[in-house]
Amino acid sequence: MCCDSKRRFLLLYATQKGQAKAIAEEIWQQAGAHGLEADMHCISEMDKYNLETEKDPVVIVISTTGTGDPPDTARKFVKKIQDTTLPPAHFAHLQYGLLGLGDSEYMFFCNGGKTVDRRLQELGAQHFYDTGLADDCVGLELVVDPWIDGLWLALKEALLLQKEKEGMNNVVNAVTSSLSPAPHVVHEPNLSSEVQNLKLEDEGTKSSNVLSQKVDDINLVAPARNTEPSLVNSVPPVSQSALNIPALSPEYIEVQFEGTHGENPHMSSLISEKTTFEVPVTKAVQLTREDAIKTALLLELDISDTVFDYQPGDAFCIICPNNANEVEELLDILGLSEKGDDFVCVKVKQGTKKKGASRPQHIPERSTLKFILTWCLEIRAVPKKAFLRALVECTSDAGEKRRLQELCSRQGASDYMRFIRDSNVCFLDLLHAFPSCKPSLNLLIEHLPKLQARSYSVSSSNLYQPGKLCFVFNIVEFPDCPARPVSRKGVCTGWLAELVAPLLHPSKNTLDTKGESFSAEKIFIFPRPNNTFHLPTDPSVPFIMVGPGTGISPFIGFLQHRQKLREQHTDWEFGETWLFFGCRHQDRDYLFKQLRCFLENGTLTHLKVCFSRDSSAAEVAPPKYVQDVIRLYAKEVARVLLEEKGYFYICGDKKHMADGVSDAVVDILSMEMEADRLEAMKVLAMLREEKRYLQDVWS
């Protein structure tokens, strides 16, 4: 709290993958140019701030994780403010502005920010600035940039009002003072001009907020008239514009090489506050035919020697490495091929201007360079604009430098979206596209995010297969494109596919006489329980499952569990079960043809399937998609949901399936209730609220 109390504001961030923190740091950096001082803290550091006594304006930047949860760093804070014993005026003294980050591909958009915002309002806090909700689906900067632009005027007005209130306490004629026009109005033109003048100078240093250059300043060759824009090529008006680019973040990491002696950290150190388990992969099955469009694999893990526990519907996470060839390629481009096995010491740079600088938690203090690039940094991450800004300073070719400036500028926002974000261009792709860019190792550590563990739905039941955990996934493919000269597989799915190749295609060298693998490969996992996506607690309640493609994964666990319960409890009453499954081709990617076994033994009451790419000779073409099939059973669906208080589960792709299913359910409810669409949508919202309409979806 060392900031000037007259120009100070409290800046809190709650981040899951680093987005909210990066935006908070941008606000902190810009604050100085506006004569303000941001007292910045992670929202989890509750020992460093106190909202109960906070008098200055508060700015909160908060992301959303999972299907609508606050980030892990905000859980303690959210739990604290949701204390039901807090009085309605608990935060009546507090004035705040909140920026929420989310993805509209998911149902509960920006719910982390909305949860905090709503609760602060309930406790009497007041907005000094309208809440902003940024959508990562279309580009966070579309909301973030203008929200930050308008923040400064709102902050200064809030601080002046605060000063006015403090001054009034010392004025004898308090009533007269309170009735007089607010003095901040007189200063408003000056404040407004300060905020609206976005082309800020940073005391003449190279970290200025705005770079204004004409095309001929850097000797660019004018593009031919028929030249199309691309990752490396711009056209007017961007190529001829003066540019507003982000501030250059101060460097804060120092890397020292220390030879080849030592040991790398244990994998468990890569995951904070979670227990990791090293388990063998004991079985791998390819569920799709070789000519299927996507390749789906089922893997079985042996968890019998661990205390790992799960329920059907839960998810778990796999700690995966970056592709070894890509790591070697990156080392080569950086000129560090000979130093990959050298140990490096990572520490905070002395004299850095970055406030509260610390070594990123996901970076070991001492490990080999190859360990950091393999297990710690997401080298496939789409580079943020702040990273592009830093890369400008590492680029020697004038044309390449200019293009990187454009891509991180406001004027080049659409180019950034089209050629980097939407094309899923990663750091390695950028280095290939801009060969004169030679970043230092510390920049990678400062700007590349943590390599996240990958989450998968459990596709088994511990009751049905004790000591086993199964899961299903498609091998993700990124085809080559102009910005990506080579095709790539998903970081985790590609690694897993390579890892289990001996199980899929065993050779004589890897098998013993029984056909078993001599030495099963092991992977590190940790639990990620799902609080709601579980079977109904009452087995007599009916439920409907919708899971096309690999979305069927958790429902295999549901059915296995239900079959075992039926065997163990013959006197129980079990509700009817529906499964809607779809895929492209019946003979290529019908993942679990053994579903008919569940149908035959009574575990599954109704199985409805569709095949979107198969041709049909029938007079009336069969439905192609699960949402089409569901409409054929409108009365049954309405009966289960409305009369029998049943459950409805959806798993799979959100945009191309889950939204269509939701629309179908709304139409069914509207038709069967003989109500308008709005009323049906309210009923669906009620089902969600009652946790009877549940989704496990991805974008």
Molecular structure report:
The protein is an alpha/beta fold. Among the domains are: 7-165, 3-Layer(aba) Sandwich (Rossmann fold); 543-697, Nucleotide-binding domain of ferredoxin-NADP reductase (FNR) module (Rossmann fold, 3-Layer(aba) Sandwich), CATH 3.40.50.80. The strands form 5 sheets. Strands 1, 2, 3, 4, 5 and 6 form a 6-stranded parallel β-sheet that branches. It has a 6-stranded antiparallel β-sheet with strand order 13-10-17-8-9-14. The longest helix is centred in the first third of the chain and has 28 residues, at 141-168. The chain is globular, with a radius of gyration of 28 Å. Keywords: Amino-acid biosynthesis, Cytoplasm, FAD, Flavoprotein, FMN, Methionine biosynthesis, NADP, Oxidoreductase, Phosphoprotein, S-adenosyl-L-methionine. It comes from Pachyramphus minor. One of its GO terms (cellular component) is cytosol. It catalyses: 2 cob(II)alamin + A + 2 H2O + 2 H(+) = 2 aquacob(III)alamin + AH2. This is Methionine synthase reductase.
